Automatic annotation (TrEMBL):
Membrane spanning residue stretches: none
UniProt KW Acyltransferase keyword: yes
Descriptive protein name: Acyl-CoA N-acyltransferase (NAT) superfamily protein
Gene3D superfamilies attached to this UniProt entry: 3.40.630.30
InterPro entries linked: Acyl_CoA_acyltransferase (IPR016181), GNAT_dom (IPR000182), Plant_NAT (IPR052810)
Family to which this protein belongs: Belongs to the acetyltransferase family.
GO molecular function: acyltransferase activity, transferring groups other than amino-acyl groups
């Protein structure tokens, strides 16, 4: 079919009172997933900017043709770690210090199916990038499924992005019964101030670490930060604080934080056959009736469901995987109490801790794709050079405000 390139497309800032219902209508026509297969629909609970609202700086744009909204895009900007330098103190002790850059993130790009192949997506991206540059962003990146060839082609072939990182999204169902946490592990809840000190001491040089980590852990959606240690080493009563703990930590430990995505948006799997729905329902019935059998149950993902996101994962020591597993089990029980359907996290593809994270392969994504673009010619620090050409590290810090 021939595309009418003469159509005038207007890109402007989203106006909630004017555009809310029309944007939601476009979202409903743009379900994520291959045609004739399972697709994932996002219910934003009446707030089209919910996925960027908690970022330090954000913008949403819409595209119009004859006053009809045919597309939209969201973007946000923050300061993150892009590398590290060695610093030598007066005592000749060397340590790594983070190198920060102002990073922009594109998400929620949608174009109505009937208006695709008209350059609307490209126009939205270019307009958003102009806002990024005006606000001092040095880099822009986006995330998509590796199978989403149209999205990958748009960004890599037409917008100048390069394939950068391939993290893994790990998803675990929330069962109808509590999971049992090992008695050999003690879990200590940290105050937000202790969590900030802990993260800045141990994770500030991790790629994508947000400089405003205090705003993240103090956000109302952050349900807490939790530390796992071997039983008998520390307890809630004997917790000495992060500074003293890190001076002489136990042989193994792990840490993670929990983000309540359920209050921001919900997901729904569509396109499942009656057979698949029936099988999933059967597993839930057996799981509730015979919990001691630990039947792997599939939550009702075919109706809107909420989830908790695990972020800030880290750990050290020979038993760190057991510590991480205990924390994930603790997070599962918290999600069950809150009525969530799944617990999810995202880690670097080479992250050693991923082997301690319970997840279902059928619900997870082994290779998500992050693409990046340098927006300016100069750099925040000459020693790091062009971040887009850097080798991936072992870990990444996934900001829960951008999921």
């Amino acid at each position: 079919m021939r595309v009418d390139v003469s159509v005038s497309v207007i890109v402007r800032e989203f106006e909630v009172n004017k555009d809310k219902e029309r944007v939601e209508a476009v979202e409903r026509t743009c379900e994520v997933g291959p045609s004739n297969q399972l697709s994932l629909f996002t219910d934003m609970l009446g707030d089209p900017i919910c996925r960027v609202r908690h970022s330090p700086s954000y913008l949403m744009l819409v595209a119009e043709i004859d006053k009809e909204i045919v597309g939209m895009i969201r973007g946000c900007i923050k300061t993150v770690t892009c590398g590290k330098n060695l610093s030598r103190s007066k005592t000749s002790v060397t340590k790594h210090i983070p190198i920060y850059t102002k990073l922009a993130y594109i998400l929620g790009l949608r174009v109505s199916p009937n208006q695709r192949r008209m350059g609307i997506g490209l126009k939205l991206v270019k307009k958003m990038e102009a806002w990024f540059k005006d606000n001092g962003a040095e880099y822009s990146y986006m995330a998509t499924e590796t199978e989403n060839l149209a999205s990958v082609k748009l960004f890599t072939e037409k917008c100048g992005y390069t394939k950068f990182r391939t993290p893994s999204i790990l998803v675990n169902p929330v069962y109808a019964h509590r999971t049992k946490i090992s008695r050999k592990v003690t879990i200590i809840p940290l105050t937000p101030s202790d969590a900030v000190i802990f993260y800045r001491n141990r994770f500030s040089t991790t790629e994508f670490f947000p400089n405003d980590i205090d705003a993240v852990v103090n956000n109302k959606l952050s349900l807490g930060t939790f530390l796992a240690v071997p039983s008998g080493s520390y307890s809630v009563k004997t917790w000495p604080g992060p500074d003293r703990f890190l001076l002489g930590p136990p042989c193994s430990w792990a840490i993670l934080s929990v983000w309540n995505s359920k209050e921001v948006f919900k997901l729904e799997v569509r396109g499942a056959s009656r057979v698949k729905r029936g099988l999933a329902k059967t597993t839930r019935i057996l799981d509730r009736a015979l919990p001691w059998l630990k039947v792997p149950s599939v939550p009702d993902l075919f109706r809107p469901f909420g989830f908790h996101f695990l972020y800030g994962l880290g750990g050290e020591g020979p038993k760190k995987l057991k510590m991480v597993k205990a924390l994930c089990e603790f997070a599962h029980n918290l999600a069950m109490e809150c009525g969530c359907g799944v617990v999810a996290t995202e880690v670097a593809s080479c992250e050693p801790l991923r082997f301690g994270i319970p997840h279902w392969k059928m619900l997870s994504c082994a290779n998500d794709l992050w693409c990046i673009k340098r927006l300016v010619d100069d750099y925040s620090d000459g020693s790091i050079g062009d971040w887009t050409k850097s080798m991936p590290g072992i870990s990444i810090f996934v900001d829960p405000r951008e999921i």
